[in-house]
Amino acid sequence: xxxxxxxxxxxxxxxxxxxxxxxxxxxxxxxxxxxxxxxxxxxxxxxxxxxxxxxxxxxxxxxxxxxxxxxxxxxxxxxxxxxxxxxxxxxxxxxxxxxxxxxxxxxxxxxxxxxxxxxxxxxxxxxxxxxxxxxxxxxxxxxxxxxxxxxxxxxxxxxxxxxxxxxxxxxxxxxxxxxxxxxxxxxxxxxxxxxxxxxxxxxxxxxxxx
Length: 210
Ligand SMILES: [Zn+2]
Prior knowledge:
By secondary structure, the protein is an alpha+beta fold. The chain contains six helices and four strands, in the order αββαββαααα.
């Protein structure tokens, strides 16, 4: 469940024209599968759901104000990673780098680096902050435990924790001021996949290739 992407992410959406960068959030939730691209924490594990996540600028607003509302500079991150990173530039971009080549999560919840860029990201985003390591380890243990029992309650809990959020954004109802340069991406949105009955009950650890 803590697998970093093995492939470079190819964006499925291209909204533009919002005055407030926060308006891109529903698109980014769908784009990055409702989890933090840095620490891999998921919305379904946070009591606050998507309120515990924010629009993250790969290149900070202070350094590159011209990219502050450019979708290609925006990703999805939990508020903890977002505030830890502050205005530092990310050494890794999931749309340029396959993060699995740089980072890995151990069964103990600790994230280790395979590269200098990975180590830099761990330090910039404080990916091994103690409470987060403990929380990741708890999720690994819970996953193992729930898979070992065959009870209706366990299956229900597994789907709630390790499935997709109930409030998937219906992006077709959103109309970015300057349009969406990749309208075909709506078909592969999680909302549409669920509507067609194609969304698995448990989340995919690797994103399907668009
Ligand atoms: Zn995070």
